[in-house]
Design brief:
Layout (H helix, E strand, L loop, with lengths): L1 E4 L2 H5 L2 H12 L4 E2 L3 H13 L5 H14 L10 E3 L4 H9 L2 E5 L2 H14 L3 H8 L5 E5 L7 H8 L8 E5 L11 H11 L6 E4 L11 H7 L4 H9 L1 H6 L2 H4 L22 H17 L1
Parallel strand pairs: 1-2, 1-3, 4-5, 4-6, 6-7
Helix pairs in contact: 2-5, 3-4, 6-7
Length: 281
């Protein structure tokens, strides 16, 4: 998450909590919205406690230097204060969770999309061990609200949980009843803010045409027809019409897919999903 640290945390907070906060930022698990007062407070904290750790000293010195160019904090920035500091640290130490229908498929898809679109922070959070970002398998769309509730219960103040669900739309005006029910249940959960419903039918509809051609060369003509019309591309049942794409071989090794391989509307929505993930990460 993007953290705005109250300087008082370094002067009045429990030193072990303050140190844990610096370490979370230093190792890259969370990002710091640097201000000059907070940068100076961190630098002074390290000196006062004689913590001669080169990487952290460099972090503080660089923050002081960058503070003069600080921008306004985005609205999703988390303010870290002395109040409830124990709970905040406990929440920040845990991984963030994205609840999906199929964690293996969506996890692979979004990891590669993040890599292609230059969201390296997300890619690293997925691949590091232990991971800082976990895709939670819901075990079925109709019960997605259950793992959302369960994961939210692990957090005290910072509800670092998101959900991504297929729309199953047959066209842009379709609103399947089963989806509407579970979406309404999730939106009614106290403290839950980060839900994205694909505007297209499902995540398979967001695969670049080059990937579908790679996996289903015998369906070249059908793929070309589907991608010719945006309405067909977004609402066709890809698995039924063309065939599935296995998670472990979704993006072939050494692939040359770039951001330009996604149509503008697809790329824009994928950026929305990645931004949602970054807000909880």
């Amino acid at each position: 998450m993007l953290l705005d640290i109250d300087p008082q945390v370094m002067s009045d907070g429990e030193p072990t909590n303050a140190m844990q906060l610096i370490l979370l930022i230093g190792r890259g698990q969370h990002r710091w919205h640097v201000t000059l007062p907070s940068a100076l407070a961190v630098e002074e904290f390290l000196q006062r406690h004689r913590l001669a750790i080169p990487a952290l000293e460099e972090l503080a010195a660089k923050a002081v230097e960058e503070a003069g160019y600080a921008r306004a904090a985005p609205p999703w920035t988390v303010k870290i204060t002395v109040t409830h500091l124990d709970a905040l640290i406990a929440d920040l130490t845990q991984p963030a969770y994205v609840v999906v229908e199929n964690s293996r498929w969506e996890g692979t898809f979004l990891r590669e999309v993040a890599r292609i679109l230059g969201r390296s922070h997300i890619t690293f959070a997925i691949e590091c061990r232990p991971p800082w970002l976990v895709f939670e398998n819901a075990g079925g769309k109709d019960v997605m609200d259950i793992p959302v509730r369960n994961r939210l219960a692990q957090f005290q103040l910072l509800y670092r949980v998101a959900a991504l669900i297929d729309s199953d739309k047959k066209d842009e005006h379709d609103v399947p009843r089963s989806n509407r029910d579970v979406i309404d249940r999730m939106r009614a959960i106290d403290g839950f803010r980060e839900l994205h419903v694909w505007r297209g039918r499902e995540s398979e509809n967001y695969l670049p045409i080059a990937i579908l051609r790679h996996h289903h060369p015998s369906h070249e003509a059908k793929i070309a027809t589907i991608f010719k019309v945006p309405q067909q591309r977004m609402y066709t049942d890809i698995k039924s019409e063309i065939g599935g794409v296995k998670a472990e071989r979704m993006f072939p090794a050494g692939h040359a897919i770039t951001s330009q391989d996604f149509d503008d509307d697809v790329r824009a929505e994928l950026e929305e999903v990645l931004s949602m993930i970054e807000r909880i990460l």
